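dude i think i finally got it to work??
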Amino acid sequence: MRLGTAMTTKTVQTQPRRFYDGGVLAIGDRIGLPPDPDADPRIVLERHLEADLEIFSLERRIAYRDRHLGEILVPSSPEFRTDLTSTPALFTWLVPKTGAHLPAALVHDALVAGGGGDPSYTSTQGHDIDRVEADRVFRDAMADTGTGVVRRWIVWAAVAAATIFVKGGLPWSPLARWAHRVGAGASLAVIVYLGYCATGDLVDQRWPLTLPLPWMGERAWWLEVVGGLVGAIVIPLALSLLWGRFLRAGVISCVMLAVLLHVTVGLAAISLTYLALERLARRAPLLARLLAVVVAVSAIVLFVWLSLG
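look at this
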């Protein structure tokens, strides 16, 4: 039975007992064990390295009793793999790979084939769970684990945005799918462009293709910062209307992107520099040492020169 997508807004109260031990899959000569609603969930992971990527298999199932779908058991196959919480490295400071939200993340991974394979779940009531519904299950499940309100809505908005763009993510007509993709993509592109313009405005530089932003203008630097911040809230709120049925995800995603754009660019630059240095140290260790010496000597010379005037 296929379930229609649920976009409910009703406040979810934390109910940790909705998670419980899902038992063990029967594999080969091993006898399977049924779910035990009276037992706490047990997350037993086995680490694997595949193509130099760290992923995990679940040695025991996790059971979750959803408010709309009833009992869900994950995984349904021993071949299921997960990278835990699928957070890009740039944002693990905001949403770590593990924590209170981990059981919900594992359930969501199994529902949407987060490890790159097929979905791996059993709905004891026979529901065929599409990706939009899986995202809603994830949000509710995070509430049941005690995940903070702000974090769970940020995480839900991120996975909802991914659902819009991933192939087969939206169980709607092709026209509806592309309307949502174009709307969400255009809003994000506009926010990045306005962030580029705002940076030029702040440092009083007219860069190529930039436009003056009236909410910043030629003011004192701190007023321009305030103007940029309020613009990073008001403009994304308007652009989120382009997200259609995903309005709430659009509000969160657009505002987060606008407010954290420069932080993200800075973290990306640091990460790329680190990766470049790792590659250099691995492929040309002598050159890497020489570069380290040059940087150290240059820093000492500049420090002395700046200190002595």
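The first helix runs from residue 102 to 112.
im so relieved honestly
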